[in-house]
Amino acid sequence: MATKLQPAVIAIFGATGDLAHRKLIPALYEMSAANQLPTNTSILGLGRKTDITDDEFRSQVRKSIRDFVGSDSEELGHWCEKCIHYFGMGDSGPEDFEKLNEKITAIERTFDLPGNRIFYLATPPQAFGPTIESLGEAGLNSSEGYTRLVIEKPFGHDLKSAEALNDLIHKHFREDQIYRIDHYLGKETVQNLLAFRFGNALFESVWNREKIEKVEILVAEELGVEQRANYYEKSGALRDMVQNHLTQLLTLTAMEIPTAFKAGHIRYEKVKVLNAILPIHDEDIVEGQYTEGEIGGEGVRGYKEEDGVKKDSKTPTFVSLCLRIENWRWSGVPFYLTTGKRLKERRSEIVVTFRRPPVTIFKPEEKNRVHPNVLVIALQPNEGFRVSFEVKKPGSEIAVKTEWMQFSYADSFGPLPDAYHTLLYDILEGDQTLFVSADETLASWRLYTPVLHSHHTLYPYPAGSWGPKEAQKLKG
Ligand code: BG6
Q1: Is 422 a member of any domain?
Q2: Overall pTM surpassing 0.70 (yes/no)
Q3: Average pLDDT, integer, range 158-164
């Protein structure tokens, strides 16, 4: 079935970069192949280089689709020929933005487009400010149809810079034009948190401090810093993962029931959670940095030995922290957030541990001890969830054993769509539910900025472990 969405020009700044080639172009192609991209929607790659022709860019696009979607066909060739264009921005002066406007207008005329424009900033963060300023000054912040601005994390590197970035964006664009991407929000399993919580009375009725003892949110990666030392050295685990991805998981887990399944209502509830979190004290956080070790049976370097990393680097590659949400639902329930690179395995999950039964009718010996019920929401890999129950072992003796009930996405639905596929569709549709609001970025930076400015011991941990053992002490 063809989509009801209106066609647009999608102009991607940083179109020759990694994000565009690994994620955006493949996702756009998959949408087109699934008839989800409106006919005549045009993708305009923007890069610094002025000597790349449309055809050269089309072959790059074809290669990324071959590499990351695994398909190549005559149809793909036609799609590239018709829908893919390139424009070199040179040094991005005012005249380059004027020419960009002319180029977009020409594409709109050729394909009889209604003037909808999406500007996607897939560039390093240093380019956000100047690009937004230039778009605004060139009058590219409005058009005959809609104009939307898409910006990828990081949204600033602390509260002050996030405020400055928001101010700059709002000088030229309205908040309803802005789509701040945190790709975790595009993951099916993350969106499912809302369906899981608000579609199942069974869980929602016990989702509070009376029934829940603790919540643990883990995003563990096997990968190291890879080729991104330049960025990561200035970022570290807290800025790279906690302030955004893990905090999204936290707010979706802890938020109140929104009045409606609409962007404004959901975003409002998420901000309320952030505003209710108590300041983070030094004893609530443990940071670490990986040293050499073994991943999947192979020796890997320590962080300080990685290309581009300073030999005396103090950048944390692991962080674990305990947050307290001081509201009626959660007062007294610790939320533990943990993330790290070069950990034992790639695993992202939310583990909710319920309180033990207040009294036990079973004998107190070890074999009869009743474990608390645990709910594990597996975000990746092996997406799904499982809940533990205590069951009686058959036999005359009363002995209790833990068993699990499971749901697996793969078994029920097959492979899941990529996050960017979902997010790009929502941008075309004009649905901001899965995007981060200005208020949310500020509330989050307000919470974490003091932590960034205070000094913490950096504990080493061998690559392939679960992080520094000191992190266990956080949990008492
Ligand atoms: C990115 C971080 O935002 O998320 C990376 O910058 C990290 O450091 C990545 O590896 C993790 O994303 P995913 O989807 O692989 O869990």
Answers
A1: yes
A2: yes
A3: 96
